Amino acid sequence: MINVSNSTSKNNPSWLLAEPFRPTRPTGPPQPERPAAAARTPARTAPARPAWILATAVRVLFNWLAAIPRRLGDRMFVMNDTEAYWRSWQITRTHGGLGRRYRDPQFGALAGSSPGEVS
Is the pTM of this model over 0.85? Predict the structure, then answer.
């Protein structure tokens, strides 16, 4: 049986016995109500909005330009990447996407050799 209420226990919190908290009403002259349109305005000011849009557009443009070498390399090496995937080789993009390095993981399984070891 699970006892959900703690009314019979000795460790009842004392704040439950006091009167519950009620917010007080402000005293002084009444404040004028704000129009509904002012409550719906965004937090940004009007001059900051075009600057924010321009900054976002510049970021998008730079990201698009930075991805051009990667996309070009993907198109150039599609046949080699397909064969490497078919053979279960590891493919490493180098030089910003304009180069590839292929490695057969079975070379690490050869007896007495470790990756990077030269005899």
Answer: no
How far apart CA 88 and CA 33 sit, in angstroms, is 70
Strands (E), 5-106: 90-94, 99-103
Percent of the chain predicted with pLDDT > 70: 54
Is residue 6, in this structure, part of any structural domain at all?
A: no
Residue 32 lies in a domain: no
How far is Cα 96 from Cα 8, in angstroms, rounded to an integer? 71
Tens of pLDDT, residue by residue over 28-63, are 676 677 666 555 655 555 567 888 999 999 999 999
**Considering the domain boundaries, does residue 101 fall inside one?**
yes
Residue 104 to residue 63: CA distance in whole angstroms? 33
The total number of structural domains that make up the chain: 1
How far is it, in rounded angstroms, from Cα 101 to Cα 89? 10
- Can you read off the two tokens belonging to residue 24? 């007080």
